[in-house]
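Consider the following assembly input.
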Amino acid sequence: MSPNSGTATAVKAEAPPETDQSRRPQDALTKEDCLEILKQLYLARYFDVRLIKEKKRGHLRGTLYSSHNQEAILVGSLYGLQPNDWVSPIHRDMPAFFLKDAKFKWDDRERMGLSIEEVCAQVWGKSGSPGRARDNWSHIGSRAKHIIHSTSMLAGTIPTATGVAYADRLNRGDAVVVTLNGEGSTAQGIFHEAINFASIHKLPVITVIENNQWAYGTPNELEYALEDFARRADGYGIPGLIADGQDVFDVYDKMMWAVDYSRAGKGPVIIECKTFRAYGHGDHDDDRAAKYRPKPEVDEGRKRDPIAVCKQALIEKGFLTPQEANQWMAEGKNAAEVSNDDFPPEVVQYLDRGIEFAVASPVPEPEEAARWVFKENG
Amino acid sequence: MSPNSGTATAVKAEAPPETDQSRRPQDALTKEDCLEILKQLYLARYFDVRLIKEKKRGHLRGTLYSSHNQEAILVGSLYGLQPNDWVSPIHRDMPAFFLKDAKFKWDDRERMGLSIEEVCAQVWGKSGSPGRARDNWSHIGSRAKHIIHSTSMLAGTIPTATGVAYADRLNRGDAVVVTLNGEGSTAQGIFHEAINFASIHKLPVITVIENNQWAYGTPNELEYALEDFARRADGYGIPGLIADGQDVFDVYDKMMWAVDYSRAGKGPVIIECKTFRAYGHGDHDDDRAAKYRPKPEVDEGRKRDPIAVCKQALIEKGFLTPQEANQWMAEGKNAAEVSNDDFPPEVVQYLDRGIEFAVASPVPEPEEAARWVFKENG
Amino acid sequence: MSAVAAPAKKNYLTALREALDEEMGRNPDMVCEGEDIGILGGAFGVTEGLQAKYGKERVIDMPISEACIVGNAVGMALNGKTVMAEMQFIDFISCGFDQIVNMLATYYYRTAGEVNMPVVVRGPAGAYGGGALYHSQMNEAWFCNSPGLQVVCPSTPYDAKGLLKSAIRSGNPTIFFEIKELYRKREIEEVLPNEDYLVPLGKAAIRREGTDITLVSYGQNVYHCLAAAQELQGMGISAEVIDIRSLVPLDEQAIYESISKTSRVVVVNEAPMTCGFAGEIVARISQNAFKYLDAPPVRITRLDTPVPWVKPLELYVLPSLEKIVSAAVATVKY
Amino acid sequence: MSAVAAPAKKNYLTALREALDEEMGRNPDMVCEGEDIGILGGAFGVTEGLQAKYGKERVIDMPISEACIVGNAVGMALNGKTVMAEMQFIDFISCGFDQIVNMLATYYYRTAGEVNMPVVVRGPAGAYGGGALYHSQMNEAWFCNSPGLQVVCPSTPYDAKGLLKSAIRSGNPTIFFEIKELYRKREIEEVLPNEDYLVPLGKAAIRREGTDITLVSYGQNVYHCLAAAQELQGMGISAEVIDIRSLVPLDEQAIYESISKTSRVVVVNEAPMTCGFAGEIVARISQNAFKYLDAPPVRITRLDTPVPWVKPLELYVLPSLEKIVSAAVATVKY
Ligand SMILES: Cc1ncc(C[n+]2csc(CCOP(=O)(O)OP(=O)(O)O)c2C)c(N)n1
Ligand SMILES: Cc1ncc(C[n+]2csc(CCOP(=O)(O)OP(=O)(O)O)c2C)c(N)n1
Ligand SMILES: [Mg+2]
Ligand SMILES: [Mg+2]
């Protein structure tokens, strides 16, 4: 329009990919990858049920926002990332902190992503946490490990993501930035401002919408006029994909398409993952949630446990036998019903290690509270 | 999705209307209506050029945000409204305050809409203004006359519009609420929050986007990734229409479609009107604007003067002869080039009346400044 | 063993709920809106039952859009409604900040009295509960510095109900700070009148009389002051405790009168010190009651830090019984 | 007629522009963003020429999205950049308020020192220019009450440049209030050093020495105070004028030292009174310099109203020479 038109150009978004069965990214995954992905689902689930138990035993303060039934979104979104990519998890994504770029193995001490020790230290409110337990629960992150620090203000880190991406572009880097969000947070003004900005400058920001059909006690139809939150993308002229949030491989496929698209400089992408919140909003809300979400709806929403769906896919891929699939049976069980025997031992040991560290880590000294308001010796 | 699903239901928006030449709303307009519309264009234009002259003569403080070249949007948007409908103008829409529900004749003293006296008193900073000149320039409005009080914060009155519409629904009214906005303001978070809310509850809020291709010194392509701001509607599942902002009858057609749609309870609509800002952002910016907008671009953007376009249409409709069309030749002329003889005398007289009142109206007493912070005798 | 049951004591949260219920009942033009206030009944349950009673149209479950919640309230008020707008936590009011300070607060002024805004924005506030940075704020000073807003913070069930009703009926926009740590606090439950009652805005309450020093506070810290007064009594110091209850408008006279008696004052609140309301009270005292003062007026506030999560850190930055007692002792000794 | 031209005096706006230009020049990791700052060069021209010199990538014309402007700055800072974020008018900062108080201000604290935020949010502020409610604000108190932010307000070209550079290099987030009525004010133009210089944050300037009363202020009101001091001198009253320059951190010592000499103080600023920074200064003086005071410390501030448009109303609510003089006289007479 103008000769002074700046860096951006206005073009129509590339159409989202057809589901082309012949070239799905998941088909390039090795057996080892696939088994690793299954193990990560166990790990995310175990983290959740174990924390519920620890809290019941009075070991924890703070609210638990369960990621139960939504683990495929975390694992599928993160598995294919590079270490230099950035991730921005929110309250329901606690496992994302240690599963970041999980391809590089969660039990490898040299990997990127926070260690399970650091994450547990945060949950336990100890000084071994990356933020020295100054902020609560999921509110950690790491500049070194390219994890944007989570915060309470919903959608509030999406502009952080655009800024990270913009700075990376200035540095001539090739990182993509993946933000995880509940569908409820898409109503925030800052969601709009940040996605709009990202789309103007074609920043590699991938916004994952975990549509678990409820925002606290508010159902989808009071949050948005359309059924598919992916359609929010249409207002920005960017691709809006829909993934089956129960199927880790479908999430992976959509994410890999988005990563390729974004890394190629074509701009931001929104991926809506359809899922269902297993429990109440937080553990304080379980009883009330039972009132606003009648049991049949909950049963329906939890019918397709992501662990079971993954196993089925692995059997179909020929990477798992039915007997192997039955070895650890965490799927479909609540914290109260499940035991350590339902999980691979290395999963239990991994978390044991984290908890052991957390318990041993000291509570920060009270005087620390006055520190780091402003740069010290700056 | 849930049995507790609230008042809203998620459905696809009705498709915007095809341009059906056989049933254009404008075709139902009488000759009298059409000539009135032309007169209103003169009126809006005259208001603008006259104020520029008055300011040059040192009679005015405050910045002039010219609506020159964009008058067809104001007149076309407002002409078909009912008196109980609401309007929310912004900085560039000064004539909208007296043209509100203009079908009821701007020179009829009993009409709704603010009187020219009140509007001029505001411009002159006098106590005869509805807000007693406490806030500046276009920042007036009237509850009684269903004009939402304009403010500085761009897009900040869109949620006011949703609230007005929501309250009207509670009262079982049938008003629609029309907000006028620059395209730049659509980047604001509050735009998103309010349109999202309106679309969930199918509120009769019609958002007119005056796309004059610039937001101050920032061109369209740095504000939005797509060319058509009407596409913002797609993210909310609501109709997004595009009108030729130079053609008052095209604006009228699109607005009447939207009004029918909204009044019928089908929900909000966005109408983008394509136009071009005639001068600088405000009168303080004219010199700088000449640098960031080269003359050929400006000439191109101002080629189709809305007065000329309207006259041509009236000739085609058989409501005006070419001689009549040449009687007053305001089109294509800047404030410096135009004289009172280029306007119908009643237009000049109308504004004279307003200015006379404004000049005679006293400046508010200083002590008033301390009043109306909180309800008095409340 | 009497045939007449003793009237039940009610907690702070119930008092608020009753206020909303009664006001919704008496005013068909009143609307409630907020996140999760209807189907769920509110994160804390303050609005529980309202949607069932008054319908989905008048008790609106809003999307997560604080700015729109406020802005929509402004529009409803412009069109004749009285609105209660809930912030799920008062911390999130910052997301609706512009609409509050630039639209809600100024509408009456800008329109020279044409359009008043009967809108109460209320929500759970305050620290001491391990809520960390974003679930512990007392950000009342932002609004006290934004002309056109009433700012209220009750400390008892009786006041919670009576002040909320006054705020709703005042016709002025009000930011209403509820202390979530008091919502269900057993020790402060009390019997509420059966009949409709109001607690006037701008009227402080003397919570305890004393002669040696005045402790001025509001909200949760009133109880710290009362406990401190108790402890000071054991040390032979008689402390008067004033609960200001409403910050804007402020009952300055009550404070000055007390100081005319005690000549010494400690002001306590849990907001950050700089530009907080404790400082405002100290400034007004210094300016208007200077002649009574025999010792510097002192504030005990949160340190100028965010509220950290873990308990020892949280307590370190907040006012406490100990800090108040030692400040009071030093002031008396001055 | 000399062969060596006298060095040119520069205005406040030019000083700011030079600061940005020089900092962009010395730090390749610095970025500027804001509405209309590139192609246009800023509404007032503070960023004029920067985009031509440093390119469109480093001088970003942002959409009208204040929250994203701040949030994007937070992200860039997280990823190693230093950012200047312009608010077209400081009044619009309320649209980005949440990102400022909850993200920018707290990042360093929340990460226990891992991630600092070298971000300066700056913009034109202040009244007296007929800007009305939304182009006249001095809302610095909101940020002073939000721990983690530096707050700065220069009154001279020299300070404008030196403080802006200090803020940019400090590594801490800063809200930088520029007085738009001073941007092009001829009377205050001054010759600036050719070499790089800084004005330290947290150091007040004594603008005029005096012995009878201390006038404390910042920004535009410094000139009202200087004029008042002049007038007071004619009445035989010797006034000392302190320009605090930075509010957070604050040079308390300079104030206390002056009061130890004068025993009397008037604090002047143009923000609303309640919970404003003038009150904060009064509170600190009362608390920490009580023993020096021979009269109540007084504030002259904006009334607790918005800033109205038309001149007589605007002036009615703002501090003025007359108000300061009469307050000073009353204080001296006390
Ligand atoms: C700005 C803001 N407003 C309100 C809240 C309170 N809140 C926390 S979680 C939540 C619901 C979130 O729903 P959604 O985004 O769908 O995520 P989910 O919990 O379903 O994963 C709300 C309202 C908040 N954290 N931030
Ligand atoms: C929230 C907010 N940010 C910034 C501004 C400053 N501002 C006033 S008008 C304007 C440009 C508006 O552009 P547009 O919306 O396209 O309207 P136009 O002036 O072109 O009619 C800007 C940035 C403002 N008024 N409000
Ligand atoms: Mg959800
Ligand atoms: Mg425009």
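Chain A has twelve helices and seven strands. Ask yourself how this observation constrains the way the partners meet.
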